[in-house]
Backbone:
């Protein structure tokens, strides 16, 4: 029998949870870095991918549906417009739909293939009254410099129906194994359950723990082959390649992954952030068959999807329905909604492990951010997390305070991060919390004073 709940016990458990979370502190001075302005006059820049050519050009995607070529000198030229393929967005307001993922094929310089994830109108056979369908599609670049998109080349690989406008995820990335990884959110609605709208309802385990849906998962597919009537193949060692769940599933228990990238060095690990419900923001290293807990856990805490105000016991369960141990985050910080004093932000934005040469103080650290400390005000924060030397221990978290933007936040919304061919990092921002205006910018992390 569990001991009766008392205010004292709750305070002790909460104190233990916070004590186990490394405090984020400002690094010496303003971290020895600055943000160098690269590009302006954008709305909601969210995607950046190097073309891998000698000129150092990159593809720059906006959530609104525009795809640009970004030159080394910061000039942008529109390459393609996806808007006529997308569902209507809430222009001028907050929206989580749009152009959400971009990845060039590992041999793109030879075959011209690249991949996008975007929010399309609801397909004919989608559940009635659901919001839209998320398409993962292949396109081809053409032209001598691969600076044009063949608009007739679209090949839809995978479609994921979405019940709501939020928690789509949508980030995509090629792994060192050559397979395409896809981040899918839980489909929206708080707590990953919905008992009020029957046509959007889900089981008591939510989508995150349901192995018969692609929602709330990290997926993995082989885009170089076709099999089983699909425009892709299933890697033979996917966890459910032989049954027991959806074939595409690589990992599960995911809520809202707004950032998913591979480390280009080290062990080439896959990092994915997961935006929390109301208490914890986390970064996970994604492993095959890993269950990251949602909607039974948020961060390292137990979560009650029926009553998310019921917080005890804070640290259970440890295992899922199949008896497997949950995989915990490597980076964790409190949400300001739950921890007004100790919290660091309200919505984590995934980044990259730094492998460039310009900023040796960041080498091997995971650089990422928080969208903002306030939903309506531009108060984004930059972080650098240092790997722990002890298994199971959370990484040390430091606030990055650029010399160019002194203070506890950079006074912009942090929408995304990018990485160029040399491993140098970029921050993609704007000054409002929605798809409005032309305040979007691309910044490069550089040495302070350079």
Residues:
């Amino acid at each position: 029998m569990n001991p009766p709940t008392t205010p004292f016990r709750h305070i002790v458990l909460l104190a233990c949870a916070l004590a186990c979370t490394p405090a984020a502190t400002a690094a010496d001075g303003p971290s020895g870095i600055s943000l160098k302005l690269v590009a302006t006059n954008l709305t909601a820049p969210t995607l950046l991918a190097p073309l891998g050519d000698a000129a150092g050009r990159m593809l720059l995607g906006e959530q609104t549906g525009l795809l640009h070529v970004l030159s080394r000198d910061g000039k942008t030229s529109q390459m393609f417009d996806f808007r006529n393929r997308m569902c209507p967005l809430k222009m001028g307001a907050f929206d989580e739909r749009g152009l959400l993922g971009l990845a060039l094929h590992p041999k793109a310089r030879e075959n011209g293939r690249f991949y996008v994830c975007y929010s399309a109108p609801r397909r004919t056979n989608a559940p009635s009254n659901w919001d839209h369908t998320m398409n993962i599609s292949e396109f081809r670049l053409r032209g001598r410099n691969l600076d044009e998109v063949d608009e007739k080349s679209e090949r839809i690989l995978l479609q994921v129906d979405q019940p709501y406008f939020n928690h789509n995820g949508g980030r995509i990335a090629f792994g060192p194994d050559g397979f395409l990884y896809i981040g899918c959110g839980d489909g929206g609605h708080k707590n990953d359950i919905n008992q009020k709208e029957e046509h959007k309802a889900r089981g008591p385990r939510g989508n995150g723990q349901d192995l018969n849906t692609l929602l709330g998962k990290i997926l993995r597919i082989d885009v170089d082959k076709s099999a089983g009537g699909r425009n892709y193949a299933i890697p033979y060692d996917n966890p459910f390649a032989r049954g027991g769940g959806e074939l595409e599933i690589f990992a599960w228990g995911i809520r809202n992954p707004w950032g998913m990238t591979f480390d280009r060095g080290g062990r080439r690990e896959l990092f994915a952030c997961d935006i929390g419900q109301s208490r914890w923001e986390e970064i996970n290293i994604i492993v095959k068959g890993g269950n990251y807990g949602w909607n039974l856990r948020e961060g390292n805490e137990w979560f009650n999807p029926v009553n998310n105000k019921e917080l005890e016991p804070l640290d259970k369960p440890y295992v899922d329905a199949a008896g497997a141990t949950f995989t915990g985050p490597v980076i964790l910080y409190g949400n300001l909604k739950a921890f007004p004093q100790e919290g660091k932000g309200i919505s984590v934005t995934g980044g990259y492990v730094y492998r460039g040469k310009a900023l040796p103080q960041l080498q091997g650290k995971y650089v990422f951010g928080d969208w903002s400390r306030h939903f309506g005000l531009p108060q984004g924060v930059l972080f650098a997390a240092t790997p722990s030397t002890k298994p199971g221990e959370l990484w040390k978290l430091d606030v990055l305070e650029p010399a160019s933007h002194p203070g506890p936040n950079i006074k912009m919304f942090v929408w995304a991060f990018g990485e160029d061919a040399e491993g140098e990092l970029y921050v993609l921002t704007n000054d409002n919390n929605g798809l409005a205006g032309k305040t979007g910018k691309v910044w490069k992390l550089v040495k302070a004073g350079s």
